[in-house]
């Protein structure tokens, strides 16, 4: 009973392993420290190429996680073994330490920038955009006029309006909210106008045969069917809201806030704290998007895209 | 004509609103000046006074237009006050970054479509990264590069490249995947190699997605460059113009730089739209 067919792969794997070892050692000799880096990288990649052969949700979740972990490990190793100065790139462990040591500070910045600046501006901007979309709903003329302008404005560097609004509304969060209102208004407007048109003829006829008034048709049919479009706009603009609130702080802010902290910590070359703020921004951005996506799921449960 | 009219009417409405707001917002200062000089102002004089201030709260449209015209045509283009010069600084960094980012994004998309490991490893992160406000770290990138001795075009181009990379990557992966099973089977039955299937089927059918994502990417690249010009110390570019305007309260300068940036964005997006139309027409893909 020789299991030759299966055992045959082993010498191949052995040779491959030896080759990798030689490569790693050679790299380490040529450039000290790079051997470990190369090894971690190759090991992560090998595990992933193994896992990628399996279909299913587990490998689809594991593979990106392993890739991320490999990336983080390489970053840490590179910082340690090449002696990269922390004023250029701090190691992930240093960033984690800075994050843990400055929790109250980071929370204060989070409240100032995300909750007061970005969230309030996003809510006001979204409410305004929906209101305008409903108001111009009965005028095709206004729609034809506003839509091209809305699409055009959506491509402009609106963030540049921040210095003007900081002059008008002062340094505190009101000016940041104003920047966010303007940044999120047009993308949501364009989506909402498209959504209000998205009823099919059959449903419109049906509601007309029930002799529904304009308001009834709007509330019972057209607003609900506009929801997938509205949420599309709302999701796109979550990132814009954070960007607007943070960038506006570069033009002046009270002595707290994420943008303020980033610009002053860069000045003090305290890059670990800067990266901790970036971590907060990344977590906040993902959570913001996730919450909106969750609400969307509850509101538009009937839509084909949600019935997976 | 029926398409241009509504836009013109809405634009006129915006300009009218703007003049109204300019009068309302600049009036307190004009009244203050008049009260100090002890001369009473009639309504007509008040409105006239709100239109010609040196540092208005909100410059009237014609003041911005004049500032823009002075900046573009009124200076030698080598002058530091010329918007053409500042615009060129911004444009060169934007284009360099956009080219790098778009090429890298498209190349990685090719790899992702052909390798399941790459797909599973990178795509979730690429999609998740869209929810992260990357732009906010642009000033840090500039400062870090500066402390390593690299200044000028390269750091700004890096930010632009980073920002234009992800839209192109996500768009191109989607585009390369548009050919359905049947078309891929058809290529297979003609015994086409992987390279042939890529160049003859996947690449052409991805082009509409490519151009759509290029438009998003070039706008993002421009915003990235402008924000990259914001940190203190930057002296050139439209972003630096915005910042120095806000330091010295030169509102007309801010608005001119803003409109110059908007014009630049519009030209870049329109240019890609034009290339799109020509290319798709030649390939018979025009809708």
Automatic annotation (TrEMBL), chain A:
Gene3D superfamilies to which the protein is assigned, alphabetical: MetI-like
Transmembrane segments: 12-31, 51-75, 87-107, 119-137, 149-171, 177-196, 229-252, 272-295
The ABC transmembrane type-1 domain, residue ranges: 111-296
Classification lineage: Bacteria, Pseudomonadati, Pseudomonadota, Alphaproteobacteria, Rhodobacterales
Keywords assigned by UniProt, alphabetized: Cell membrane, Membrane, Transmembrane, Transmembrane helix, Transport
One Gene Ontology biological process: transmembrane transport
PANTHER family hit by this protein: ABC TRANSPORTER PERMEASE PROTEIN MJ0413-RELATED (PTHR30151:SF0), ALKANE SULFONATE ABC TRANSPORTER-RELATED, MEMBRANE SUBUNIT (PTHR30151)
Family statement: Belongs to the binding-protein-dependent transport system permease family.
Location relative to the cell: Cell membrane
UniProt xrefs under InterPro entries: MetI-like, MetI-like_sf
Protein name: ABC transporter permease subunit
Organism: Paracoccus limosus
Any one GO CC term of the record: plasma membrane
Main location as per UniProt: membrane
Pfam families (alphabetical): BPD_transp_1
The keyword Chaperone is annotated on this UniProt entry: no
SUPFAM superfamilies: MetI-like
Domain of life: Bacteria
Topology term for the membrane: Multi-pass membrane protein
From TrEMBL, chain B:
Pfam families: BPD_transp_1
GO annotation, cellular component aspect: plasma membrane
Main location: membrane
GO biological process, one term: transmembrane transport
Top-rank taxon: Bacteria
UniProt keywords, alphabetically: Cell membrane, Membrane, Transmembrane, Transmembrane helix, Transport
Transmembrane segments: 88-113, 125-147, 153-173, 209-232, 252-275
InterPro entries: MetI-like (IPR000515), MetI-like_sf (IPR035906)
Protein name: ABC transporter permease subunit
Source organism (scientific name): Paracoccus limosus
């Amino acid at each position: 009973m020789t299991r030759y067919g299966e055992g045959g792969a082993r010498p191949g794997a052995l040779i491959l392993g030896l080759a990798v070892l030689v490569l790693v050692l050679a790299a380490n000799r040529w450039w000290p420290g790079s051997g470990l880096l190369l090894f971690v990288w190759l090991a992560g990649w090998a595990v992933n190429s193994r896992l990628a052969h399996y279909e299913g949700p587990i490998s689809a979740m594991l593979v990106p996680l392993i890739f991320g972990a490999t990336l983080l490990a390489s970053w840490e190793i590179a910082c340690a073994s090449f002696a990269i100065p922390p004023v250029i790139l701090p190691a992930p462990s240093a960033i984690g330490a800075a994050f843990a040591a400055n929790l109250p500070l980071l929370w204060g910045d989070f409240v100032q920038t995300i909750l007061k600046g970005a969230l309030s501006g996003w809510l006001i901007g979204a409410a305004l955009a929906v209101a305008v979309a409903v108001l111009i709903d009965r005028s095709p003329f206004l729609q034809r006029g506003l839509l091209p302008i809305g699409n055009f404005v959506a491509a402009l560097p609106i963030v540049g309006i921040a210095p003007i609004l900081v002059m008008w509304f002062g340094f505190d969060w009101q000016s940041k909210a104003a920047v966010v209102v303007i940044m999120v208004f047009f993308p949501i407007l364009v989506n909402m106008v498209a959504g209000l048109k998205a009823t099919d003829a059959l449903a419109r006829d049906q509601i007309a045969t029930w002799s529904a008034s304009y308001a009834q048709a709007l509330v019972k049919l057209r607003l609900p069917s506009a929801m997938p479009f509205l949420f599309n706009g709302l999701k796109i603009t979550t990132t814009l809201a954070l960007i607007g609130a943070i960038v506006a702080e570069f033009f002046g802010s009270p002595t707290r806030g994420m943008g303020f902290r980033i610009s002053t910590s860069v000045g003090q070359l305290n890059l670990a704290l800067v990266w901790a703020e970036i971590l907060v921004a990344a977590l906040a951005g993902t959570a913001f998007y996730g919450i909106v996506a969750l609400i969307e799921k509850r509101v538009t449960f009937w839509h084909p895209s949600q019935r997976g | 004509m029926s398409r241009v009219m509504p836009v013109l009417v809405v634009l006129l409405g915006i300009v009218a609103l703007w003049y109204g707001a300019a009068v309302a917002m600049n009036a307190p200062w004009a009244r203050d000046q008049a009260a100090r000089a002890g001369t009473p102002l009639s309504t007509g004089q008040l409105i006239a006074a709100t239109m010609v201030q040196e540092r208005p709260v909100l410059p009237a449209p014609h003041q911005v237009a004049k500032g823009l015209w002075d900046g573009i045509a009124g200076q030698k283009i080598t002058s530091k006050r010329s918007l053409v010069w500042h615009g060129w600084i911004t444009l060169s960094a934007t284009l360099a970054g956009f080219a790098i980012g778009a090429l890298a994004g498209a190349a990685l998309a090719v790899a992702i479509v052909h390798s399941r490991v790459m797909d599973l490893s990178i795509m979730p992160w690429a999609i998740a990264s869209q929810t992260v406000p990357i732009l906010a770290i642009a000033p840090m990138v500039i400062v870090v590069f500066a402390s390593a001795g690299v200044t000028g075009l390269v750091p700004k181009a890096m930010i632009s490249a980073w920002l234009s990379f992800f839209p192109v990557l996500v768009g191109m992966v989607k585009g390369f995947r548009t050919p359905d099973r049947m078309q891929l089977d058809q290529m297979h039955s003609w015994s086409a190699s992987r390279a042939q299937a890529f160049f003859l089927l996947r690449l052409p059918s991805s082009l509409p997605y490519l151009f759509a994502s290029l438009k998003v990417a070039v706008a993002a690249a421009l915003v990235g460059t402008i924000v990259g010009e914001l940190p203190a110390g930057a002296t050139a570019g439209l972003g630096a113009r915005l910042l120095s305007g806000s330091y010295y309260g030169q509102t007309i300068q801010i608005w001119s730089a803003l409109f110059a940036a908007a014009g630049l964005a519009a030209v870049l997006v329109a240019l890609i739209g034009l290339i799109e139309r020509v290319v798709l027409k030649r390939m018979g893909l025009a809708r």
